[in-house]
Amino acid sequence: MKKAGILNRHLSGALAELGHGHGVLVCDAGMPIPDGPRVVDLAFRAGVPSFAEVLDGLLAELVVEGATAAREVRAANPEAAGLLDARFPDLALVPHERLKELSAGARLIVRTGEARPYANVLLRCGVFF
Questions:
Q1: Which residues are identified as catalytic?
Q2: What CA–CA distance (Å, rounded) separates 113 from 21?
């Protein structure tokens, strides 16, 4: 058994399969999940695990070359907006409907237990070399 890093076997395996340019949507419990992408649902109960916990865990494991979030996060969820701004200085913002469209092209969706609106981000994988 792993003693460090991501212990969830479904998530760990899915991350190992990602390549350059693949998308990973990290989303709250209310985000509609499109058919197609692989889904790892970590939601246990409202707020557990939090969006911040899951995002930080993924960022420790992935190389990310870009991130996109819903423009509405700024007004509707300032805490999530601040978290995203701190981690992604070049964060791209699109209308929420567009983020939902883009999420259909993600390779992996990781659902958190977050119960606040617009706590969603689409990550674009980079390479470590």
A1: 20
A2: 26
d(CA 18, CA 52): 21
- Percent helix, strand, coil in the chain, to 5, is 30, 25, 45
Q: Identify the bridge partners of residue 66 per DSSP, sorted by sequence position.
A: 124
Tell whether the torsion through CA atoms of 12, 53, 64 and 72 is positive or negative.
positive
Up-side HSE of residue 81: CA atoms within 13 Å toward CB?
Answer: 11
Q: Dump pLDDT digits (tens) for 34-89.
A: 999 999 999 999 999 999 999 999 999 999 999 999 999 999 999 999 999 999 99
Integer Cα distance of 115 and 126 in angstroms? 29
Our measurement of the distance from residue 55's CA atom to the centroid of its chain's CA atoms, rounded to an integer in Å, reads 6
